[in-house]
Amino acid sequence: MQSFLEQRRIYKQLEKQIVIKHDQPEDVRTHERRYWYQALEPRHTTREHLEREGDVERADYDPSVQTDPYTINTRDTLGGNTDMMVTGIERERPSRTSSTDGESEMEKKKIILVTALTSTRKLFNTSFELETVPTSVFLIGLGMGSMLTAPLSELAGRSPLYVICLPCFMLFDMEAGLSQNVGQRIVCRGLAGLFGSAPLVCAAAALVDLWSIIERVYAFPYFVIITFLGPTFGPLPGGYINQTLFLSWQWVDWVTVIVCGFLLLLVVLFLQETYSPIRLNWKAKQLRRLTGDDRYRAPMEFNRVYFPRRIALALGRPFVFYVGELIITIFSCYLGVIFVILYTFSAGYVSIFEKVYHIDQGRTGLCFLGILVGVLASALPVPLSMKYTRRDIYHARDRGLARPEPESNLYMAMFGAPAISIGLFWMGWTAYPHISMWSLIISSVVFGFGVVCVFVSAYQYVAAAYEYHPGSALASLQMFRLTAAGVMAVIADLMYNKLGPHWTLTVLGGIATVFLPVPYLLYIWGRKVRTWSRYAPTGET
Description:
Blueprint: H1 2-21, H2 46-50, H3 80-106, H4 117-124, H5 128-131, H6 133-156, H7 158-177, H8 182-210, H9 216-233, H10 235-241, H11 251-270, H12 276-291, H13 299-302, H14 307-324, H15 326-354, H16 361-367, H17 369-377, H18 382-398, H19 411-428, H20 437-465, H21 470-515, H22 518-530
Helix pairs in contact: 1-12, 3-6, 3-8, 3-9, 3-11, 3-21, 6-7, 6-8, 6-14, 6-21, 7-8, 7-11, 8-21, 9-17, 9-20, 10-16, 14-15, 14-21, 15-20, 15-21, 15-22, 17-20, 19-20, 19-21, 20-21
Protein name: Major facilitator superfamily (MFS) profile domain-containing protein
Region (Disordered): 46-82
Domain Major facilitator superfamily (MFS) profile: 72-527
């Protein structure tokens, strides 16, 4: 809806501009200078660009320059606050689904608000190991689906994928609730994950569309905090719902469908298209319609590649990033390890609080609020991160650069990385009946703080380093971490049963310690690593 209205607004504005202010279409200037070569003047007409010799084939979109009045970063064409709010809320829904489904099934309890494992295992007459397969398939579907939806969003725009994928997610999640056997549920959950991947990636990419590098220092942390509210707050109502006798296990799926339907309504009514090349393409089409001159072209139309070839290149880009880009590989492994730890850490709540402290499911769900407090506390170092980022901007300008290096986005990770190891070791060696469980809850605050800080920096850094194709770059991160989490959904409970909570958390703390130096090493040598990349620029003059 908003995309259609925006195209109409562009047409009306251009029509008024051409008819009232100009005698000839050649005089309509676009203020567009997003091209690789520097010889092009900042103010030019589309016709002047087409008449240049030898430049058309090299034309490309450059997100570092935000000057055209119809690109997304101009505040007169889009209200940034509203779109960030809608995107952030919408992004929370699949995150909530993955966490709630996964953790409740791993814990053999209906602790979180998406899957009632105990009830479904009795209904389907299956073992716990088999019943965790829908969770794993759902998470793997999220990861693999992001490798498809992210590049498609760079061809068709963000909004169409929301409108297409969210109803499909609702349909298959509804089918999962109506499943008559575990095989049907596995298939439906896998397809739900596949379509649920669209908002998972597009929402993060939309932040790159909406905000500049300095604005993202504030935007990304608060966006990530919103997305983590689902998996941290979900256990609270889920634990108490399990104790009610008048709600069937299918209601955990119905609630997801209802919430998703409400968010789909918000997307259709309020979310505009955020990808600037698509908006400039709309502008070029309206100019051709108004003037009858086919020589008006948007930047994405200059590359004379047949559409099937464009599809193939776009779909292959995330895999190229994952295999050939060292930065993507490093952060994919880092986030994969963190999410394996997060899922295993959360699964341990039943082993610790119910088995060690002998509290009921409802109170165990309340213990998850410790992680929620840590998630909210991750907003505290944002002003300090902004201070250092501003300092880097001034230093970059002194060196003649237009922007700071992407490594200026790593401060949050450097603040939070040690907290992950501290929280894991703390909980692992204080989980005894004679030690107050408040000690464990405080350790979960520290752990939640560290996870969000690293998550924020990873997304900021990758988005800044690969700003020409942020959706594909972020999809590469999503694929590995969600696939790893899907595998962990099966084996997490086995680890607690075989090793016990103390050694399980100690092993996880040791793994987190091994990866702890990653943000510090990239801060020092990240620029050198980017010189080996084909897609990550090393700076702009």
